């Protein structure tokens, strides 16, 4: 029975909590079972060598999991790497060709995309090689188009000059915000509302931000790092709440009209 390892790659760290890894492992495992191939475990008893948040344009020697994979293959006489499809190996035609050549000629390892097992077969056939390179170029073009569309969408969001409601969550989103870390109001709307009311009350009573910081500390309020809110953080919460109230009032006017 042939021995193989599974290689998976996700280009974004946000994909680590989705089904991308499970999908890749399932496809490779099913192929191995159908073709009587033994899947070996890596050093941590996992079924896959997984590069998280690694671009498809990165050379294989710069990928931490792939480097560990090659070391494992050498130590365990593994001559086969299974991937869900060629884009999990690379989206760049140059990187794909250089990586494939290195694996086949220097390491004696066969690279198999399970959705098209003959993709790297018959390499001496000029037509087969041309088709492979064309497909890699198309994959690279598709990736570039996705990046361009996302950049255009981000630019449109950044040009927004008013607070607006998210279509998906219905929560308020700050002007021009389309990515990055969520603010306190987006993460914990109920806590944000209570803190805003507390801050507004004490500010009306003449308390300073430092005074309110101490009051909130005594009442057990903590920031995302588990520390008491600093005076400048109190001011930012107050400013954010004022903007929230402003957009709510504007929405009420629009509804009345």
Helices, strands, pairings?
Layout: E1 2-10, H1 20-34, E2 37-39, E3 49-52, H2 64-76, E4 80-83, H3 86-89, H4 93-106, E5 110-113, H5 126-158, E6 164-165, E7 172-173, H6 184-187, H7 189-204, H8 209-218, H9 231-256
Parallel strand pairs: 1-2, 1-3, 1-4, 4-5
Antiparallel strand pairs: 6-7
Helix pairs in contact: 7-9, 8-9
Question: What does this molecule look like?
Answer:
The chain has 257 residues and is α/β, with parallel strands linked by helices. It has 2 domains: 2-143, 3-Layer(aba) Sandwich (Rossmann fold); 164-256, no CATH class. Helices cover 53% and strands 11% of the residues. The chain contains 9 helices and 7 strands, in the order βαββαβααβαββαααα. The chain has helices at 20-34, 64-76, 86-89, 93-106, 126-158, 184-187, 189-204, 209-218, 231-256; strands at 2-10, 37-39, 49-52, 80-83, 110-113, 164-165, 172-173. Strands 1, 2, 3, 4 and 5 form a 5-stranded parallel β-sheet that branches. The chain has a two-stranded antiparallel ribbon with strand order 6-7. Strand 6 (164-165) and strand 7 form a beta hairpin. Helix 7 crosses helix 9 (231-256) and helix 8 (209-218) crosses helix 9 (231-256). It is elongated, with a radius of gyration of 27 Å. Mean pLDDT is 79; it is low at 253-257.
């Amino acid at each position: 029975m042939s021995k193989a390892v599974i290689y998976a790659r996700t280009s974004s760290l946000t994909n680590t909590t989705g089904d991308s890894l499970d999908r890749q492992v399932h496809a490779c495992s099913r192929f191995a079972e159908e073709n009587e191939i033994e899947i070996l475990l890596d050093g941590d008893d996992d079924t896959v060598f997984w590069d998280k948040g690694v671009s498809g344009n990165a050379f294989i020697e710069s990928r931490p999991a792939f480097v560990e994979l090659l070391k494992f293959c050498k130590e365990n006489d593994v001559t086969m790497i299974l991937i869900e499809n060629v884009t999990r190996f690379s989206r760049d035609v140059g990187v794909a060709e250089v990586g494939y050549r290195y694996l086949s000629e220097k390491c004696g390892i066969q690279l198999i995309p399970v959705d098209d097992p003959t993709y790297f077969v018959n390499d001496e056939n000029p037509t087969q090689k041309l088709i492979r390179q064309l497909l890699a170029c198309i994959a690279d073009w598709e990736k570039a188009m996705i990046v361009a569309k996302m950049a255009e969408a981000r630019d449109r969001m950044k040009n927004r000059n008013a607070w607006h409601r998210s279509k998906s969550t219905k929560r308020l989103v700050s002007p021009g915000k389309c990515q990055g870390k969520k603010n306190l109001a987006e993460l914990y709307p109920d806590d944000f509302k209570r803190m805003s009311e507390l801050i507004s009350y004490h500010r009306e009573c003449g308390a300073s931000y430092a005074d309110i910081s101490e009051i909130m500390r005594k009442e057990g309020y903590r920031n995302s790092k588990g520390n008491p809110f600093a005076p400048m953080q109190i001011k930012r919460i107050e400013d954010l709440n004022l903007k929230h109230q402003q957009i709510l009032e504007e929405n009420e006017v629009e509804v009345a009209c």
